[in-house]
Amino acid sequence: MANTEKTPRQPMPEQDPKVRSRNFDEVPLGFDEKTAVLEAGRCLQCKKPSCVEGCPVEIDIPGFISRIKEGDFGGALSVLGEKTALPAVCGRVCPQEDQCELKCILGKKDKPVAIGSLERFAADWNLARQTRPLPKLPPKTGRKVAVVGSGPSGVTVAGDLILKGHQVTIFEAFHAAGGVLVYGIPEFRLPKKIVQAEMDHLAKLGVEFRLNTVIGQTLTVDELLTEEGFDAVYIGVGAGLPRFLNVGGENLIGIYSANEYLTRSNLMKAYRFPEYDTPVVKGRNVAVFGAGNVAMDSARTALRMGAEKVRIVYRRSRDEMPARAEEIHHGEEEGIEFYLLTMPVEFTGDENGRVRGMVCLQCQLGEPDESGRCRPESIENSEFTLEADLVVIAVGSGANPVLTRTTPDLGLNKWGYIKTDPKTGKTSKKGVWAGGDIVTGAATVILAMGAGRQAANSIHDYLTWGW
Amino acid sequence: MHQILARQEMAQGTVVKNVVAAPLVARKAKPGQFIILRVNENGERIPLTMADTDPKEGTITLIYQVVGKTTALMKTLQVGDSFLDICGPLGTPTHIEKVGRVICVGGGTGVAVLHPITRALKEAGNQVTAVIGARTKDLLILEEEMTAASDALFACTDDGSYGHHGFVTDVLKSELKKNKDTALAVCIGPVPMMKFCAKVTREFGVRTLVSLNPIMVDGTGMCGCCRVSVEGKTKFACVDGPEFDGHAVDFEELTQRLAAYREDESRSYNIFQGKGDLCTCEV
Q1: List of chain A residues with pLDDT < 70
Q2: pLDDT per residue as tens digits for the range B204-213
Q3: Within A165-292, where are the H helices?
Q4: Is residue A268 within 8 angstroms of chain B, CB to CB?
Q5: What is the pTM of this model?
Q6: How far apart are the C-alpha atoms of B207 and B181, rounded to whole Å?
Q7: Backbone phi, then psi, for A337, in 5-degree steps?
Q8: Best B60, B70, B87, B278 residue to mutate vs chain A (most A CBs within 10 Å)
Q9: Is B235 an 8 Å CB contact of chain A?
Q10: Measured between beta carbons, which residues in chain A are less than 8 angstroms from residue B218?
Q11: Could you tell me which residues come within 8 angstroms of residue B238 by beta carbon, excluding any fewer than 6 positions away?
């Protein structure tokens, strides 16, 4: 205890904002061994660790940190591997400040242990040395599980159930596995080779990947359960239906949903056009609507594509911005401007149908609405115009109906999300579970993984005991 | 990987037909549906409506016009070569039912998309007239197949080198005048052709289906790239379509959106043809 207060929380080294805002390399550089051991030494190794309570997948946090402190970096990853299929991903994109680090006892007087940075270190150290241990697999049970969607919740289910001896097949609509981790989160925040390594690890464990397969079109859930012979199906397809603003001129060229803009630049690598064939509009004056993590990702991508001015346009105030503080901070450092309390009225274009700008209104905050947040109200005669030749709409997504409309006996709520038992992820259809954004609406990677963990336990019980 | 099992050049090499192994797609596909294809690791995702399927053989038939880098690259592939990715079937199939008298109008490679729909409409018991057109005789495709799939066939060429001298809309108009009981028109081809066909059928009050080909990325309703305005409402062609009421589609917007990447596309095509990286930014 004595020396813990002497060691300050080790800051994460980062690329200089001026340099990084023009490249797609990762922003945080990661701890070196010395820094990691130093930071791990700050952990009090609490008997009743409250950090673990803050983790949706209940990682043994003091356990892996003590391994790092002892210099056993391989052992640290083994401890992580007991609870997470995606340590390199979670170490990067989890909102630790609202979860494990929020609960860290050190945070009461000092700054909490940098748990996320340490998790990332353990994963990266082993990845660089190709020393990720393969756990011993139990005997095969002969039961088959289909996982629909290869995003965070799907791969968690797959990782958990393969370790319990079941045969697991992941169905993915895109040509690459990873879901939002490959199409949505940009390279500079989550390098694609990291995601690929996590997918390769699952494949080494025996998980089968069937890409380019759209459940609801290529095969239906019922066909998986009958013709394809699966004993259980887990649906983790995400909330893949982009929301638009529903204002005039929204179909002008140069106005994208965040899904399209990020898919073009990340998955299809439009930032390397013409080496890669997929193009994307490169704006000089960019406006991004919304203020969540996806909006920040879009804005920072546009900057790296060469934009001169990138603005976040948001109806509410800074306090209501849903993005992680770290993402907002990174964006500000890189020169993103914020137009807060600003509401779009319509988009204007040129004779070729390309967007040239938009008319906006200023707002003030009124009474809280049903979401609990203050409702933005437009101010009379506050109209002004903003120039923009690239617009990204990042105001959330809804439930994509491609799978659900071909599965009539799957109970949905009024927004089209799948209804499940909150403890088990069981749906109204026998042998079918669901979790992640298709149940909750758009949320975080780690919450989707938490839902996957619960469902995997329930599926295992079902396959073992029949309930 | 999806191997090319048969290959044929049509319309003086401007159009290519590939029969491709894709058993899961072939088993499910219905007329009017499409696939998304990627040639190789650096390739873009392009939608192609299927010209035919053979569930027994596990194959699908793709007929495409060479218009840019991706299709030019596809043309270099021979029997035994493969496409890296094929995803499908996607989109909503054509609603096939017996309505009585139907006229099917196709232009350019649109005839390839029209063919399975025409055949299915005839098999459903409709009296089917087909009208196919091209700029000139050598560019006309699938005349034999369309003859077999319909009860009567009219061919048109813009230059008069074969069949009716003029546009498909001329024949469409005269047929609608002659057959007042026509219940449905299916018009598939270049956007201007579909637009003018819809104009003609509107005069006669004949319900009209068109199949749209906007730019797409995922093809499953996830990105909204393919949004089109139909009766003033935004629809996603990949899941709500690709077929829509021809009298309600905003063809001007579709034309503009199809040209979204024209500069990038010609830059890419120039590099592919060995002409170098010509900058066309000022165009």
Answers
A1: 1-5, 467
A2: 999 999 999 9
A3: 180-183, 192-205, 221-225, 258-262
A4: yes
A5: 0.92
A6: 12
A7: -100, 155
A8: B87
A9: no
A10: 173-174, 263
A11: B47, B90, B91, B216, B218, B219, B220, B221, B226
